[in-house]
Here is the input.
Amino acid sequence: MKIKLYKLAHSRAGDKGNTLTLSLIPYNDEDYALLCTQVTAESVKNHLRDIVSGEVTRYEMPNLPALQFVCQQALTGGVTTSLTMDPHGKTLSYALLEMEIES
Amino acid sequence: MKETIRIGCGAGFSGDRLEPAVILVQEGKLDYLVLECLAERTISLAQKRKRQDPTKGYDPLLERRIESLLPDLLANNVRLITNMGAANPLAAAEKICEIARRMNLSVTVAAVTGDDVFDQLTGNEQALETGKPLTDSAPLISANAYLGTDAILPALATSAQIIITGRVADPSLFVAPLAYEFGWSLDDVNQIGQGTVIGHLLECAGQLTGGYFADPDKKDLPDMAHLGHPFADISADGTAVFGKVAGTGGLLSVATAKEQLLYEVMDPSRYITPDVIADFTQVHLTQTAPNQVRATGGRGQVRPDTLKVSVGYEAGYIGEGELSYAGSNALGRAKLAGAIIQNRLQDRFPDLRIDYIGSVSVHRKTFGTYPDPYEIRLRVAGRAKTAEQAALVGEEVEALYTNGPAGGGGARKYIHEVVGIVSTLIPRTKLTPQFILRHA
Here is the structure.
């Protein structure tokens, strides 16, 4: 059954220059394994393909547990020169949470 | 030596609320208050203000923050560490003394300087973002290196009740008092790594205590209108227990702490500051009581030989215009308006951006299918070399009143001067941080 990440996890976006960071934190620690299997760097890159033009790197944090995605060239130039409504990309955590996975 | 040091964070950005810091100082039993008020772009804007007036260039809210805090800081013996000096820490220290005299209070302020490296750059340095020389982004207007704990420590050894800095790495504002009070060696990379974890968790203030966390019915938290900002009780071994003042709003939980721990972090095993390359992968967060979280396990590797420099440059202007449509076919009429603007401006504004607020704007696309909303706001933005050219965007949108689709209303137009930011590295040996004392 398809399920939105929004149901399983929460996220906060951060920015460094033109790079977007997205945490992905399961509400229940037991769902961490499911997220590790299905929310890969490739699947996130594909989901955000219209937003992120550069590479997506995934970092695993089993100690929390949580995942961290670092998305290059995602903020249309960065906070000061971008023409977008949300130059920090702060709303993009909820773009990630729109992704659907098999549960 | 005290067994634990309590550090509060009363501001996480320049525009943060004023009263959480006051509550922390009045009721939080703090040893130190930190106010983190300096973002990448803020310092370049401050440099522009300093160029227009050499007595300015510090944080625009400095006066109001200091006026609201100073009596209680002094009465409760709380030392303040803040980067509100922005582009002009010395002028900030003098302004604080002026405020103290006006309030009939006595204070010593230390201004930490040395982060301004504009005169040391040739322009041939490589921009980290583009790999090209900085002068490709010319004209440059500012260059500020991220100073670390070693720049703040000498000021802490004085009698100054307030230490005011310019560009300093955010976690260093917290590592410095810990290293000073506990005598931590800056070479003890695991100790400084844990101190950096503490600083990183505290630095955004309310983002640790439930600010920027709530999502109704999924992530509920109480009384956000009176969100409390956090403090941490830190032991000499670096164990930190985070809390907030009883009776304040918000929530401090493992979940809020996880979001903040990962906020703006690239590789969590290599969080680079001027003090250490911190490793967050062994950090453990434990709920020890309601609104109380313990953090342990930060580690680190030896600090880099170079410091990051934020370089500001003049990037021209952005012009914007907005107009609303409501009721039946609001999106259709807004899209017709967008098409008209595109047709009229595309030759002069190659990067023209057209958003339909309420339908597609901040995510730049929709994920899935959503019904059209009742009302839509058209928003147009374009980049320009001059303010006059930028003004055309708003003028064209406003002209839709009598030349565009039916029922548009509420036109607004804006022009912004843009400061661009690129980063480069500078050998730390090139910097000579100092402090200057001022008394009132």
Summary: Helices of chain A lie at 5-8, 32-38, 41-47, 93-96. Residues 2-102 of chain A form one domain. Residues 34 and 72 of chain A are 25 Å apart (CA to CA).
